[in-house]
């Protein structure tokens, strides 16, 4: 964390989003900030309604202004809000859990922003707001594969976490995988992030300048997966990713074939 007040305030808000109704000492421990700094930030954000204070319990929680901000970000008119119907449709068409992620370049990671569950009683549970590296899984590798080559090389120089026995961390093997994903237009994984998680199929999402900004992904438990499903699943996931890419810019086209 930097020493900027903004970074410290955001750290406090992130803690409150994860730990509802907590005291100053808990927040200070979670953010590695001293108690006096946390107390000052809380007072300032309480004045702005970003944070709410309960004088009886002496605890803090997310305030109405922060909730309003989050609602506006996720509203139907926002970029994420406009993508949501696409993910809802995909989840219904495939009857499986589908998600939309956005790419965070500084950390070579992606964040889950939308999750929609199909009608099946059992499925993979994405967690909204979770952050993972893009070197593994069907939601991460479609992003990594379509990064500029110099950024891929920069990522491959970093320590890559081996999450399961199926996680690929060898740079040469990852380069080969990324080339295949570029060629096919989608990624497929089996247990790269979570042991026994089943099959994941994902496709990249681009902005109007052709820059990869995220992914659309579906996960299918191993007991429901049949290879005969692959053509249909790939087609629908790629179509959804293309629609997500075009949201807000109808003229955008990456040439993803349906």
User: According to CATH, what is the class of the largest domain?
Assistant: Alpha Beta
CATH architectural designation of the largest domain:
2-Layer Sandwich
* Biggest sheet details: 6 strands, antiparallel
Helix content: 40-55%
Summed up, the domain count is 2
Rough outline = globular
Average pLDDT level = 88
Task: Give the CATH H-level superfamily of the largest domain.
Answer: GAF domain
What does the radius of gyration come to?
A: 20 Å
Taken in chain order, the helices and strands follow as HHHEEHHEEEHHHEEEH
Task: Work out the strand percent.
Answer: 15-25%
Describe this protein's structure.
The chain is of the alpha+beta class. It has two domains: 5-68, Winged helix-like DNA-binding domain superfamily/Winged helix DNA-binding domain (Arc Repressor Mutant, subunit A, Orthogonal Bundle), CATH 1.10.10.10; 75-246, GAF domain (Beta-Lactamase), CATH 3.30.450. It is 41% helix and 19% strand. The chain has helices at residues 5-18, 24-31, 35-47, 64-74, 79-94, 141-145, 149-156, 171-184, 230-246, and strands spanning 51-54, 59-62, 97-104, 109-116, 131-133, 187-190, 199-206, 212-220. The strands form two sheets. Strands 5-4-3-8-7-6 form a six-stranded antiparallel sheet. It has a two-stranded antiparallel ribbon with strand order 1-2. Strand 1 (51-54) and strand 2 (59-62) form a beta hairpin. Helix 1 crosses helix 3. The longest helix has 17 residues, at 230-246. 33% of the residues are buried.
